[in-house]
């Protein structure tokens, strides 16, 4: 589960940087090849940060309430240096991406304020809508994963323990992060909504229920008598 969570925040970081790049340099676009390269890099990033326990740095274990197997945050094992691995994972898997995201959106806000008049048309509206969508996705991610990261850090360094069902709340909240993006995407993307309606056989609200009357042409033959 740690690889999936790290890859998720990696994708959001790339999206934030891509939004910043598109706003600052709107004439340059990201090619399909570059997009695939970035997507592959994000998964390599997520998997790489999760590999050290396999070579003896840190350990895997069951999360609270045995929900899933992940990095063992609660275990204090000097032989595997779990404390240094948790610090490494917390910095490169959470703090660094969040810092890049905040930096990107600070640049986006500043740029949009400067070019507000020039982006008043339909193209500017689309750019702002996409930027808002990515921002909401990032906020949803932070809402889901910040409690998990906070309690994991507190458990490792301050021996803070949650008991009972409360211990499962951060883990369940973190797992729920996969549910937010489709909802946000569907709410802010008209084409996605139309595709979903079409898939379930629903009529679009803008679709006309009746047929438009076609004007008929009448040929008039005029004969002239002499």
Quick description:
The chain has 226 residues and is mainly alpha-helical.
Structural summary, described in words:
With 226 residues, this protein is an all-alpha fold. 62% of the residues lie in helices and 3% in strands. The protein contains 7 helices and 2 strands, in the order ααββααααα. The protein has a two-stranded antiparallel sheet. α4 packs antiparallel against α5 (169-175). The protein starts with a helix and ends in a 27-residue tail after the last helix. It holds the Pfam family 7tm_1. It is a multi-pass membrane protein. It is found in: Membrane. Its main location: membrane. It comes from Cotesia glomerata.
List keywords for this structure.
226 residues; mainly alpha; 7 helices
Query: Low-confidence segments, ≥5 residues, pLDDT <50?
Result: 208-226
- Please, what is the average pLDDT? 76
Mass-distribution shape: globular
Q: What is the ordering of alpha helices and beta strands?
A: HHEEHHHHH
Major sheet summary line: 2 strands, antiparallel
In DSSP terms (H or I, runs of 4 or more residues), the helix count works out at 7
Strand content: under 5%
Number of strands: 2
> How many whole angstroms does the radius of gyration measure?
26 Å
Structural class by sheet pairing and helices: mainly alpha
Fraction of helical residues: 55-70%
Q: For the terminal residues, how far apart are their CA atoms? A: 96 Å
**Strand order within the widest beta sheet:** 1-2
Subcellular location: Membrane
Membrane topology: Multi-pass membrane protein
Family: Belongs to the G-protein coupled receptor 1 family.
InterPro entries: GPCR_opsins (IPR050125), GPCR_Rhodpsn (IPR000276), GPCR_Rhodpsn_7TM (IPR017452)
